[in-house]
Design goal:
Endonuclease Iii, domain 2; Arc Repressor Mutant, subunit A; mainly alpha; Endonuclease III, domain 1; about 270 residues; three-stranded antiparallel β-sheet; 14 helices; 3 domains
Amino acid sequence: MLPYTDFKNTIYEYYAEHKRVFPWRDTNNPYLVMVSEYMLQQTQTHRVVPKFNAFIHEFPTIESLAQASFEMVLRNWQGLGYNRRAKYLHQAALGIYLNYKGTVPANEDELMLLPGIGKYTAAAICAFAFNKPTIFIETNIRTVFIHFYFNDKDTIHDRDIYELVVQTLDRESPRQWYYALMDYGSYLKGSVGNLNNKSAHYVKQSKFQGSFRQIRSAVIKQLLVFNTQVPTLQLIESLPYEPVLIEKAIQQLIDEQFINNLNDTISIKE
């Protein structure tokens, strides 16, 4: 087994020469870090950068996001997909504004009380915004530890990787250490391929094209294009999908409180 000192030196030496530059790394503003973590869920970094910059230009503070309409938040989220994240982020901003005087909690347990924040996201926010030595695993970090410590094994469980993350963590500078791990993981994906398929937790992401998720997204996009209340039939006829699937998507979005249906007229929820 590679000694931990050698492992850490290898990671930091690579990082010193090849670290990636992202706008959310140039700040320790907890709000901006939180926005980036919502956006980075299931989305590649190169797609997030322009959307992040535009989003924080429109909503530079917790207060501005909390006081914005849900429709405006959705408009500024378009292009990132997974609209639930926009909804959760908007709700989280409102909760922080009302319950924490606009200050993002620096505690994992409190963060996990907010919509759309699980254990990973709470730990990541604490590390990147507050430089706290939290423990978490994501795809690039998993790749690094599989490469160095489990490369001859398959169906590797995160609990085994977790112990190594604990033992190798730079507790004086967890923020930079996790950035370094993620950058090395990104390098490995480009040079040796996707090692995450060796993980017991590996699930191939489903395709968006042709999926029911695409229809849901199309309903939201079309309502934003109309920019007003739309008769249900008109909305259905404006979309190139089977009417029964559009109707199902509309009902789901109503149930999840994305949209309203009043007298058979559809609109984005206030």
